[in-house]
Structures are given as C-alpha cells and as structure tokens.
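Homework help thread (please don't just give me the answer)

Our assignment gives two proteins as sequence + structure token strings and asks us to describe the second one. The first is just a warm-up. Here they are:
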Amino acid sequence: MPGKTPHGNGKEPVENGGIRNSKDVDMKDEATLKGKKKATTNQDGEAPAPKTGKKQGEGDDVAMGDDVPAEEDDAAKVDPVAQTSADIKSNFALLERAAALFDARFSLRAMRSISTLRKRLTPDILAHVITETFPSNSTPAKQLLAALGRENLPLGRRPNGAEMDVDTPASAPTPTKNGVPGTASSLSVSPTPKKDVIPEVDIFIGILILVHLYDSKQQQRGYDLARILAERIHALNRRTLDSLAAKVYFYYSLFSEQLPPLPPSPQSPVVAISPILLAALRTAVLRKDVDTQAAVIVLLLRNYLSTSSIAQADLLVSHTQFPENAANNQVARFLYYLGRIRAIQLKYTEAHEHLTAATRKAPSSPSAVGFSQTATKLLLVVELLMGDIPDRAVFRQAALEQALHPYFLLVQAVRVGNLENFEMTIAGHAATFRKDGTYSLILRLRQNVIKTGIRMMSLSYSRISLRDICIRLHLGSEESAEYIVAKAIRDGVIEATLDREHGFMKSKDVGDVYATREPGEAFHDRIQACLALHDESVKAMRFPMNQHRLELKNAQEAREREREMAKEIQDGDLDEDDLGGEFEGM
C-alpha cells in the first residue's frame, strides 16, 4: 500500500527501511556528514556489523545529524516572534489555574511577567496570539484586533504544530495493484475545535495591548480599549479578575490624563471618568475586591489633585477606608497623595508622617526611582515648612543627587536665612518647581527664611538692634522687623524679649536640650514607626487559601491517634518496646 512502511517477510530484502522514498529528510552540511561518517566506522574503516536479532533497517529509527550540538541547533532556530508568543501563552495556564483553584497568586504571577514582555510587544505578535487563541466567532477578540488596527485578520487560525483531526469516510471498494479489493482512503483534515477562552485570558491580552498602546503614545486607541475592558469587567462578577481589573482602571485613568484638554481644565476627560471610578469603587467595596478598591481610591485622589479639587479629595479620604491588606505599591501611592493633601491644608505634621511612610514603602527597584524622587522632593519642602533642616545625607544618594540639586540650593538658602539667595533660587528654578508641583508650597517658605534668619541672629548675639535685623534680612522698614520678631517670639521660634523703647531684641540663655523631653519623644516616634512597619508587613503576608482547614484536619487526626494509643496502653496491648523507648504514663 502506498504510504506504508515496507517490511521484510524473510524472502525479499528491505533497504534503508523505506527511507529512500521519503522526501522530508533534513540534510546537514558537509562537515556534519563527515563527522557522522567517522562516528559510524571502526578503526579499519569498515562499518560495524548490525545488531543480532534485527536486520538492517528493521525497527531502527534513522536520525540525521544527531551529532550536531543541540544548543547550536536551537540557537539557530530561535525566532523572537515565536518566543515572545510562547512567553505570552505560558501565562494562560497560570490564569486558568487561578480561575480553577480560586487563588489570586497565580494571577499576580502572570501580571509580574508584563515587565519582561513589555519591550518585546508589537502589533504583529499580539495579533498573532489573538488569532491563535480565540475562536472565529469571538467578539472580544475582534475588539482587541480593532484596537491594534488588525481587524481584517481571520480568527481561529491553527497554531503551528497543533494536532489535526483526520476524518476517513468509507467509500466504494477500489482494486489495488495486486487485484486485491481495498478501500480508497479519502483523507479530510480539519483543525481541532478551539475551546472557550476564559475572561481572565481575554483581559490579560487586553492589558498587554494597553501597555503597547501607552508605550507607542496612541492615547485615543488606548482610552477606547480601556473603556471597553472596564465595562466588560464591571459586567462580570469574578474574584479572579480583581488584580487584572485594578490594572485596567489604572491605564483607563492614565490615558484620560493625556488626552486634550489636559488637566486642570474642567473639560478634561479626567473629570468625565470620575463618576465611572466612583461607581467602580462602590462595586469593589460591595464585592470586597481589595485590589480594585485600593487602585481606584488612589486614582480618584490623583484625579482630584490634578484638577485642584482639594475639598473633594479630603471628602473622599474622610468617607472611605483604605484597605489594610492592599499591595505595598498602592499603599505608598495613597500615603503620598494623602501627604500632598495635608500639606496643601497647612497640616504639616500629618503630611510629614504620611510622606515619611511613603518614602519608606517605596520599592527599591530601579523602575520606581521616579516615585522616590517625587516623594522625597515633597518631603523636603514639608520639613522646611515645619522649621526643620533636612539631613545632608539625603542629597548624597546616587539615585537622588541630580534630581534634588535645586532643592539642595533651596535648603542652603533657608538654613542660612538669606532672603536674597532664597529669591534667586526660586527665580532660577521656577520651571522645575512648577513641574514637580511644589512651587506654591515653596512660596510659603519666605516667612520661614525670615524666622530662620532671626533664630540664627538670636543664637549669635545676646542683643541686636531692629535696624541691624532689617539690614541683614533685607526688610523694608524697622516696623516690619519688629512685627516679625514679635511673631517669632509668640510662635516659640526664638527665646528672646523685645524692647520697643530702645529698639533691640535681647536673647535668653538656652538650656540643655537633653534635659528636656524632646530626645525621648523623638526616640519614641522612631520606635512607633518601626512597630507600625512590622505590623503592616505581617498583615501584607499572603497565605494559601483554606490552609487552616488542612492544619485543623491534621490536628484532629493527631489527637485521634493519641487517644487510640492511650487506650491501647491502658488495655495492655502496647508496651515500651512498641513505643520505641521509655514511656511515662499519660
């Protein structure tokens, strides 16, 4: 029969096991063939005798080029497109396992792979994955292809190497070469029908497309796709979509910020999506969706701050409770925005606490350097507004040194109390301060510069005239100097008295600071911060679901065994030798 491998019946010899008629033999180069020839000959140049019990070519598998190193062969055949597609599809198993076991850890593991796939994503690769994953009648797949601009590609394409269903319908008998009646094999090949794709895979591919659109600066397409994915997630009620939904809402808000008109314009899309985010927050609270709840609260605070809606941001913070077991990155963002709100509201002590916690919780990876720089800049300004001088070691960090240089000059001007240098620093770096969003807060430092200058003079002189204070601080008149000195004395900035008749300020003797409660209070604050960090770390730990039930079952079985053992001992069925040693009664 054609297509069958010939076999020997003991009379007719068979050569090469039917290899002669095969056309798909992959031949190697001349050097490879020479190496193979040497490997298949003995020292005398003769081929070794065939194994006993088998004829040559009978039952032997012929593999060409077996001596070629596998690493070199694989390196020559690696296709970056196929490799990226395989890496993307490898996450589908994690998502399916997360949906089957109801365990969010597998979804988080798939989300972590986005950072490694990000630089390799292209529209062709994403479209290739979609066409091989979804069936031909999938509406979500068509929406994803439309976002990539590949809506004309057919769906349901068979991946390379997939198994095929072979249908062999019966037909009329036809004579063979030897006159023996047979059956004409009419082979019809059809692809294996694709199974339904779970929503987790659909949303995951959508997130990859959002990442690609954001990197390629296609804001309008990304905004439209994010809106479609958000509506789809809102219609589904699946807890395994929580981590994916948080990422979708993040890109939804991010694309809206970059569409014209930009915030703080009241016509900005940021204002339009606020009701959508509030509805998503309400739904997340009802469903106890911690990931989406934390992400949406942070996005709402960001939107309110971008449009200078401080009152609405304060109401949101007062009427909502940020989840305690949220991800560390979301907690750091929430503390940063909360610190910015409190700084604008002149609550510098609370702002300093929130910003300090945000900088401590900031990730140490190089990709999160931008957040550390932004939070540290705002923290330095708040410390200056509180009357403190930041430590010089902060400006010596390699990741922050260049970004904090304008703030270093600002701290130097405030520390010395030189009003002229302070105004020159603001004028020279006004664009940087506006970009960082700290310009309005820095303008408040003028009074602090004056107070610092007065404090320095009160420590240097036991008595100084108001005229000298006016000259040193570049003030307009002695009345202004008198007003500023009186306010500094009332606020407790300096320990001095003001003699208005003679026109001078007299400083008091400064006592030992270690005799006061200030060092103890500072030490207590550091201990409280360390304990709070420990408690939050314990709360953030993740454990397998229903693990306590397994431990409870094991404990019950152990108690049952102990009861049976005690009963057997009382009945005399067990002795010390059976227990493996001495046993002192129950």
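The one we have to describe:
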Amino acid sequence: MPPRWSWRLLIFFVVSLSIVSWTGADLFSNSFLVKFKRDLSLDEAHRVAKRHGFVNMGPVLRSKTEYHFVNHALPPARSKRSITHTRKLKSDPLVHTAIQQAGFLRVKRGYKPLKVENLVKNIQPHKDPSDPYFPYQWYLKNTGQNGGKAKLDLNVEAAWAQGVTGKNITTAIMDDGVDYMHPDLKYNYNALASYDFSSNDPYPYPRYTDDWFNSHGTRCAGEVAAARDNGVCGVGVAYDSKIAGIRMLDQPYMTDLIEANSMGHEPNLIDIYSASWGPTDDGKTVDGPRNATMRAIVKGVNEGRNGLGNIYVWASGDGGENDDCNCDGYAASMWTVSINSAINDGQNAHYDESCSSTLASTFSNGAKDPMTGVATTDLYGKCTTTHSGTSAAAPEAAGVFALALDANTKLSWRDIQHLTVLTSKRNSLFDAKGRFHWTMNGVGLEFNHLFGFGVLDAGAMVALAKQWQTVPPRYHCEGGIVSELKRLPSEGSLFLTINTTACKGESSEVRYLEHVQAVITLNASRRGDVELFLTSPMGTRSMILSRRQNDDDNRDGFSKWPFMTTHTWGEYPQGTWTLEVKFNSETPQTGFFKEWSLMLHGTKEPPYTGLPVLDPHSKLAIVKKAHEVRSKM
C-alpha cells in the first residue's frame, strides 16, 4: 500500500469503526491512555506516572508520546469513569490528554458441545510422521478415518515433500497463554517474541483453572508448530516453525490498549499473528477494533516484517447461521485473513458463520463423532483430540502461511492473500442445508458464501510461492457515494446504484480488484431483519449482510459500517454497482437508509503477468487469461 494512502485510509476506517453496538453496560478499567505534549523517555514517563499514583506499563505501539498508565488503587472494572484520576493526570503540564480505557467483551472461538502434481515436477516420496496422534490428525492426512472424506485435508504432505517445513518463521498465538514447557512445543518456542499483556511480564504461561479453561492458546500453538517424530502428541502443520505466546485474553474484559500492544508486539520478529477470538458470537453484536488496535493492525501490514507486512489470521466466528461475520470488524477487515471451517466429510459445521469477507477455510471437527476434533497439544504436557470450532481453523491456516513464507521469505501480506485465492480448492466442501452454492465470479474464480475460495492447499500454495512475483502496488479509490435519506420498504427491495470510473486517470485508479467495501449507514425497527446484497458491474452478487434473528436493535443501526466482500477478487470495477436493501421478516418492519460509500481496493496493473502457467486448468491460468484480454481493451 503506497504510504501516501495508508494514513488517510486509516483515519477513514477509525472513524467508520468508532461507533459500535454494545449489548451490555459499559465498564471502565483502571488503565489510561496518556498522550504527552512532547516526546518523553521511558524514565520521564515513569516519573510522571509515579507523581500521580500510577504505574507506567510502557509505550503504546513504540510511541514516545503515548503511554499506558495503570492505577492499582482503582478496581479493574467499574461502572463509572473516574473523573478524579483523569483530572489528576490532565493537570500535569506535560500531559495533553488522558483517556480511561473502556472494557469490552472478547470471547474464545472454541466449539462447545450442544492438484499440486502439475506445479511440482518431482515430489519426493515421504514417510508419515511417527508421532502417536498423527493417525488422528485427519485434517493433515484424511484417509477416511472417523467417517471422513478421503483426501479432504490441507495437503501438507505435498508441502513437506518439497522440503518446506516452516523454518525460521514465527507465528504469535494471541490468546490465553501458551504452555511453553510442553515437550511438543518447548523447542519451537520463541521466547524473544513472547509477552504476557494480561500480567505484564515476559512469561505468557496460562493461568491455572480446575476446568482447564485456559488451554485454548496451547491447543492452537500445537496445530502450528508441534514437533515431528518426538513421540509426543501429533505434529504441527509447520513443524519446524516457531511459535510465540502473547497472553492477552485472560481477563474479565478487554481494552483497546491490550489489543493494540498485542497486535503490534515485535512486528519484525513475528511473521504471523493468529487470533481465535473476537466479539461475542451472540448474533446481535456489531463490534470491531477500536482506535489504537486499528492503528496497530495498519502499522503491522505497512511496516511489519521489515516492510513486507505482518499477516493477521482471524477465526471467522462460531455464531452459526444466527450470526454474520461481516458484523465482526476483525474478521471482516481487509487487513486480516478471515478463515472459516469445514468438518471431515466436507460440510460446514453447525457453528460456522457465513459472510462475504471470508477468504478461505480449513477444518474443525468430525461429522459422525463430534468428539473427533483437532488432535493437538494440551496443558501440562497432555494431548487432546477434541479441539474444535473456528478456533481450531485459524491456527491451521497460520501454519499453511508459515510454510508459504518458508518457501519464499519475500512474500508480502498481500501476496499471501493472492496465493490463498489462487490455490484454495473447492474439493468436497458443501453447505449442509443447501443455502449457499459454489458460484463463478466475473474472471472465473469459484467462491462460496460459507467457505470463501475453498479449503487451503498447502502443497499448491508452497509450489506457487516458490515461483511467485510480488503483486503490483495497491491503491484505494472511493468509487462513489449515495447520501440521500430513503425509507426502507416493508416489502420488496430498495435498489441503489453507483456508476464509477474507479478513479480512472487519477493516481489512485483501480483496474483489478482485491477487496470491495460498502460503507453503510442505516437504521431499522429491527436491525437483524435487514439483508444487504452488492452486485458488481460483472454481475457477481455478494450477500454482504444476512438476517440475524437474535438482533433486535431498533436504535443504533449501522453507522458508517464497512461491509466487505472478497467475491469480486480479480474483477474489473468500472461500471454500475448495485446495492439491494431489503427486510427478511414475517412481520412488517420500517427503517431509513442514509448513506452508502463504495470503496474499491486493488491494483492498476494486472497482478500475475510475470508468472509462468504450468497447469492450463489452474485458477492462475483462468484469471491470467481474463486479465490479458482486459489489458488489451
């Protein structure tokens, strides 16, 4: 992303995501964001904090003007702001502003019971890992065990056979801690890249509970980097890679500063950040990253990995058909890779959310036996076969991306997304209820509203990564805006159109799409009954919001909320875009549409011109041919 655009866009989206729905009473923590009038050293900030009865926890995102202060005399959560403590800080001549941090809910996304041969000429024969739990790791090698569909897996053996195992790549598990003394993890643990933001120390070990509630991060870590052939548990997707523990999820509430510091921690030591959590999956919450967290993510993709950009992997959500992951500002962000899950026979899990922002899928649990989950490491040196939910899906994707980065260390964060689109496979994935079918977009890419562009294929991704050439610069174009108060019909649909040149002739021209956002403001007598559809000039129809039967909001609606679709990837944006707004309700509803802004993100130049086509039937060949025709127009 060219620097001249990054901060303008950041300001736009901080404003867009600043208004969110909060379903409970507001909480206020004992943490404060303190902004100074000038640069301060760490020692100076310590002295200011001590002078007013606070403890300085350190700079925010390595800033010299913003620091995180905590006052231990205040309770960790209270219902009212502390005006006294805020005024005390503001009275200091060095302090510009002091903002007491709100507390909000973030939940772990764990399920609770209720062709590579054409790309690689010489794949060497291999031997299965000897780890005792490998036969249970059907998501790595599906032979039909436990009622699964044979060959429906991540195809990691084809990546390993190319000599790619994740060496020198670090994935940070942002969660409730990691048991870094586990015998299957300790030799792949990156202590220098780890930190505990819940307790503010360098040791992110999980807090003990009788029910092993804080096993979540350790289970996710094993999926990525459990050691091979050591006689313990199973094997990680990228078994020679490193994992870092970032403990940040183990407190009764989350704050913007904890999230921001976690996502901005050691961006040049960490390649991939894996998050298996998010706003409450209750089907009525509309929530996303706050100001500092959004700044951390944008800074990560612009500056992390020494300018190549950090990769943020996000679990799409466990709210099932009653929720929509486009209402989750983390999973629906264009700067993250949103991953959904499938079970071992190819159908979606009943807890999977659907949305147009999902890029691809991995795996969660078995079909016939719900206890046949993901086999991985557990607390205190133990192993488990019951890890599940989209919590289990995101770390598998992080492991596949670690393999791709091992194959080509020069891949940017956008390269990873392009590789995901081009190498993910439909395989045997299907919607169990028949609602969402596989559809072809305008340049021949097949997608599904549940599964994105398909299940990740590690072998194909590694093979293509080895010959990859970095995609052209990315630009952002506001394609147009409709700002007119219109009543929503109780029956039928409201259609709104924007005819755009996609900034043709300007420095920000977009000719080949990546992400598309419809930034929308509306309210309704029942927000959960609103459905939104966006149709591209090439005829691809994306459902950017589905009905959410638990959402009975009649006050907040959506305020500049950026609904995102990946379904038009590779298409040409010039022409007429159509937004359809309708109620899906058995009882009459009312509402008002206020504004729609069309944001187009992509490249001016065709992205794949320098890549050789080894398989004439591959997605790469299909899209490249379509782009070659376009470039001659």
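TA reply:
I won't write it for you, but here's a hint about the kind of observation we're looking for: The chain has eleven helices and 25 strands.
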